[in-house]
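User: Some background: our group keeps a shared notebook of sequences we're curious about, and every so often someone picks one and asks for a predicted structure to add to the entry. Today it's my turn. The entry only has the sequence so far, pasted here. Could you supply the structure so I can complete it?
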Amino acid sequence: MDLGLTGKAALVTGGTSGIGLAIAQRLAQEGCRIAICGRTQGRLDAAAVQLGARGCIADLCKPADISALVEDIVMAFGRLDIVVSNAGTHVAGRIDDVAGDVLLRHFQTKVLGPWELARCAAPHMRRQGGGRFIVIIGQTGKVPQANALPSTVVNAAQHALVKSLSDEFAKDKILVNAVCPSRIRSPLTDGLKLHNEMHLGRSLEQQETGWGAEVPLGRWGTPDDIANAVAFLASERAGFIVGSNIDVDGGHQRSIF
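Assistant: Of course. Here's the predicted structure to add to the notebook entry:
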């Protein structure tokens, strides 16, 4: 299926590894011109070379960095059609484990970062007659967990941001949506302890088999599974989807919205 993305200019934040890198690769395969950003020069350079992409250093907690990032991309490509907000990580812990400044930094990266990206990108998209703004939101935004309180709160705020932005931007043909991963094998999940995990002397292989059994499809997903959903939402094939959050999780999440 031709998604009609050839020549589109796309920015993927957090695009140096894992899901972000897979998204950038998928959009590049569809013919997009790609820019990625990150905070570590070495990793950014390596990913940019791999992708044949434009690499930009930016801290999404800093509005000035975001403004400069968007202007740099528009100057280089002449336009900005697709923004994928993927920067950030998962912050686990209960309320007694997580200091307020850690929560604030998490909020700045995953809520204020996309907020500023939208503010900076929207004027360019309006002049072009539309665009796509896609936010990657982890499962705790829909499935609250006591042992992942910071991500539960911040990811829920991301859902509110997506819905609110979609209402505001739809008239300008800027479609805002979310893709919601769960049980995706990536560098992020490789280092996580999972909710309700049981060791009981099991080997890692046995442990992972148990985790996969919680997914109706019987396996973990891959970053490419997320990338395929993003590519679809970025295309004209998804031209009547706005304000939605699409679970890409093998059926793992049990929420109904």
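Suggested note for the entry: Residues 9-247 form a domain with the Rossmann fold fold (CATH 3.40.50.720). The longest helix spans residues 100-128.
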